[in-house]
Amino acid sequence: MFAEPSDREALRFGENSLTYAELHRAAGTLAERLRGHTRVAVWATSTLETCVAVVAGLLAGVAIVPLNPKIGERELEHILGDSKPDLILRDEPVRLGTPGAFEEPGPETPALVIYTSGTTGPPKGVVLPRRALTSNIDALAKAWQWTGDDVLVHGLPLFHVHGLGIGILGALRLGGSVRHVKFSPEAIGQELATGATMMFGVPTMYHRIAEAVEQNRELADQFRNARLLVSGSAALPASDHERIARATGQGIVERYGMSETLMNVSMRFDGDRRPGAVGLPVDGVDVQVVDELGNDVGVGTIGEIEVRGPNLFLEYLNRPDATEKAFREGWFKTGDMAVRDPDGYIRIVGRRATDLIKSGGYKIGAGEIENALLEHPAVAEVAVTGEPDHDLGERIVAWVVPSGEAPEPDELSDHVARLLSPHKRPRVVRYLDSLPRNEMGKVLKRELSQEDCHRDGRWARPAIPVTSVDQPAELPLQAT
Ligand code: MLC
Ligand code: AMP
């Protein structure tokens, strides 16, 4: 699964690094302890220790459950209760012992369990087998001409498939190096100026890079020298793509993926880097765009993306119902809506579910935030929506009917951060007298975001002035 031991640097986090030889010893030593277990949770701080623990799990054939180190109490309780890990590793010291040999586990052996949000309820554990990772990394290596000579820099969290599954494990399989930084355009630029050849990031990061390189010629030149910049996890706005191209000469390579499928579609290193598109299916992955009946919609018509191939997950842990519902005749239904250009290039145009929010590249379910907010004594009713945001792609908005006096928005925001995760906190909190509902009592969320709905009086004006946590200047809602 991984490149052979050698003196090449495998991983670097700030001052700390490990060669492939050291990584094999460190991971092998820990793997001895993991042998025989089924699942092990790892407190996925952005450290060498996390990478060693994940590699150890893979050596021992034990599934790793990475935990967001900032996870809140309710979410942690859910993940531990659902995945029932045999062990939880936290800041496990790196020990360079002399481990024995490990037999390569079979391709269907679970490798990672990644928790991902749905529209309602708590996150589901996506069980990814080894063959999904190996086949997908090899397909991406081909698409991006990614080799052991590359040095990847990224500042992504290590509890999702982007930063961990493809970022760390991809480089380690191909024999290249990874340098992990706390994300800032300057930190990435610094690495690109000193040997890093490629970068992975989410669109929020590229938006911040676009702003920074336009102001700073030296930084722009650092990005100009990169071999490859890859964006994914959410749609990269064509405007940011173009701004970066103008300032640095780099056309960003976009790819489209999911926790359940890893990477499905990507631009090629030597192909057209068309702003607003995600490219062509990667090797070995079948992609179709279909209508409600499962028929191919053809060129230029919007349909849902369905995927089939060795990149797919095994199941949602403990959720056979959800697993079954996610497939149609062997095809995984992504819920993403797309159109195909005449040359096969795919453009993602939206999502089937409005209750899924992508903020900063994180997928967040409206339902889990609503449930968390309803636990707050000052919240009588609530609806959560996503609103366009230049920086985050979408920002989380909570529409709250207070049970008495409305609390400070920060209090509700912190409440969600504490219960779930900081990235799931509402960025804007708005108070209303009531929520618009249909005859069945279901909240009509689309009406919440339509500006004219308060003009036509279908929902009451805010009980107190509209209040924003993060972006007071941008609020469109001015009740009259
Ligand atoms: C803020 N913070 C709080 C808080 N408010 N902590 C506790 N309580 C509160 N109320 C902290 C945060 O933890 C964070 O700490 C810091 O303040 C800033 O928080 P933020 O505002 O949420 O971060 P932001 O600057 O917006 O981050 C932007 C970002 C981040 C782009 C760096 O969103 C990010 O890392 N995104 C990547 C998501 C990702 O990897 N997705 C891939 C999913 S896989 P600190 O210490 O962190 O600064 C997938 C499939 C595929 O989608 O195709 O890839
Ligand atoms: P996650 O569940 O966190 O793995 O997020 C997967 C989702 O991210 C997909 O279903 C898409 O909605 C979205 N996504 C990933 N990459 C892209 C992309 N390049 N363009 C648009 N959406 C993307």
TrEMBL record:
Residues 5-89, 102-317 form the AMP-dependent synthetase/ligase domain. Residues 368-442 form the AMP-binding enzyme C-terminal domain. CDD domains: MCS. InterPro entries: AMP-bd_C, AMP-bd_C_sf, AMP-binding_CS, AMP-dep_synth/lig_dom, ANL_N_sf. It holds the Pfam family AMP-binding_C. It comes from the Bacteria. Belongs to the ATP-dependent AMP-binding enzyme family. PANTHER family: ACYL-COA SYNTHETASE, ACYL-COA SYNTHETASE FAMILY MEMBER 3. This is Acyl-CoA synthetase. The lineage of its organism: Bacteria, Bacillati, Actinomycetota, Actinomycetes, Pseudonocardiales.
